[in-house]
UniProtKB/TrEMBL annotation:
<dbReference type="Pfam" id="PF01494">
    <property type="entry name" value="FAD_binding_3"/>
</dbReference>
<keyword id="KW-0285">Flavoprotein</keyword>
<keyword id="KW-0274">FAD</keyword>
<dbReference type="Pfam" id="PF13450">
    <property type="entry name" value="NAD_binding_8"/>
</dbReference>
<dbReference type="InterPro" id="IPR036188">
    <property type="entry name" value="FAD/NAD-bd_sf"/>
</dbReference>
<keyword id="KW-0560">Oxidoreductase</keyword>
<protein>
    <submittedName>
        <fullName>NAD(P)/FAD-dependent oxidoreductase</fullName>
    </submittedName>
</protein>
<dbReference type="InterPro" id="IPR002938">
    <property type="entry name" value="FAD-bd"/>
</dbReference>
<keyword id="KW-0503">Monooxygenase</keyword>
<feature type="domain" description="FAD-binding">
    <location>
        <begin position="142"/>
        <end position="360"/>
    </location>
</feature>
Length: 407
């Protein structure tokens, strides 16, 4: 049988799904509200675990696997905890993994979509049609009809707002500033292993390297007709702010500099030389997935349904897992092995279970990154979920609405 899928949101989860569906011969169109793919720069390092990488490889054409490998980086070694003068005060056990740059990975996942990618499309509603299909409505007056609508549109998901208005993000009360600084030998010394934390009272600065395995991969991709942005190594840094800090995005870099006066000159230089256009202040919010009945022609993926705290390092990986699971289930449908409603029901059952676990873990892991006085023991294995009990427990016992018509 044939199938048409509408994906709302051109983040890495939605794009990974789109690539996987293309490999299965399923027609897929991606609708993004931003006026263009580069309207917002999204170039921060993210950790990719074995499951996330396997999902990417399963959804991407095999001929692109070498490009994927070249755009990633290696993470290994101990995780150091330092004081502001860079004296070692603690060390967590060594770890190993991979990293990807969200901006570069997103461009790889865009490859080949062509006219199937539609920008400037803000979803305003959808209608379930009598024949079982769904019609998406956009602010510009256009519509799209498909067998399935997938909301992959992030923590502020318009699809989730229509599907289940009661399921809203929970604010953990934690604010942070995130930025990136071009890598140099001087700054590389600040992160000799997997990562570095610099702690001082109510301030905690976390550093991590994004060192690409093959910087020449952008040129290699061009030979395949794939346009990747320039690839350059950098240090990604994150500062957790004190309680109730307003987190002014306009003055994010200055906020960090004002709180590290007297710190080691290398640390101050790292922040001073950051990319100002890619330094911002954000709130840590989470979304707990809730099982809904009955399944219908609209579902959710990634942060739209289970947004995690970045402290868990599992948000992108969970979204990629969603994409691969949904790809496999929909492939079963087009190959005649199961019905669409059964495939969606199975996807949501599994996704809700592991998605809820990912959110709980990420909130508990946030504890170890909080400044002194807001956390328990620093070692990861001793972290507890004392911050924001509401963020951990706000799962509810209700069944979200699945209206026949949402506009």
């Amino acid at each position: 049988m044939t199938m048409d899928v509408i994906v709302v949101g051109a983040g890495i989860g939605g794009l990974c799904l789109a690539q996987g569906l293309r490999q299965a011969g399923i027609t897929v169109d991606v609708y993004e509200k931003d006026p263009g793919i580069t309207a917002r720069f999204q170039g921060y390092r993210i950790g990719i675990d074995a499951g996330g990488e396997a999902a990417l490889r399963a959804c991407l054409p095999e001929r692109w696997h070498d490009l994927l490998d070249g755009t990633m980086g290696d993470l290994s070694g101990a995780r150091s905890v330092l004081d502001p003068r860079l004296n070692l005060i603690d060390e967590w056990p060594p770890a190993q993994g991979s990293a990807a740059d969200r901006h570069v990975l997103r461009h790889l996942l865009l490859a080949g979509l062509g006219e199937r990618l539609h920008t400037g499309k803000r979803l305003t509603g959808y209608r379930n049609r009598p024949d079982g299909t769904v019609e998406a409505l956009f602010a510009d007056g256009t519509t799209a009809t498909g067998d399935l609508l997938v909301g992959a549109d992030g923590i502020n998901s318009a699809v989730r707002g229509l599907l289940d208005p009661e399921l809203t993000p929970t604010d953990t009360g934690v604010r942070f500033v995130i930025g990136r600084t071009p890598l140099s030998d001087r700054f590389a010394r600040l992160v000799p292993g997997f990562g570095t934390q610099i702690v001082d009272g109510e301030v905690n600065l976390a550093l991590g390297l994004m060192r690409f395995r093959r910087p020449e991969t952008a040129s290699e991709a061009a030979a395949h007709g794939i346009a990747l942005p320039p690839i350059a190594d950098y240090v990604r840094w994150v500062m957790l702010l004190p309680p109730d800090h307003p987190g002014d995005a306009a003055g994010a870099q200055e906020t960090v500099l004002s709180r590290i006066e007297g710190w080691h000159a290398d640390v101050r230089a790292l922040i001073a030389r950051a990319d100002k256009d890619n330094t911002t202040s954000l709130a840590i919010r989470v979304v707990h997935p809730v099982r809904r009945r009955p399944p219908g022609p609209v579902t959710l993926l990634g942060d739209a349904v289970h947004a995690t705290s970045p402290s868990g390092g599992n948000g992108a990986n969970t979204a990629l897992r969603d994409a691969d699971l949904l790809r496999r289930n929909l492939t079963d449908v087009v190959q005649g092995r199961r019905e669409l409603r059964d495939a969606i029901d199975d996807y949501e059952t599994q996704m809700t279970e592991y998605g809820a676990a990912a959110v709980r873990y990420s909130v508990a892991a946030l504890e170890k990154f909080l400044p002194a006085g807001r956390r328990g023991p620093t070692r990861p294995e001793a972290a507890t979920a004392s911050i924001s009990a509401a963020a951990v427990n706000n799962t509810g016992n209700r069944r979200p609405r699945c209206d026949e018509t949402a506009t």
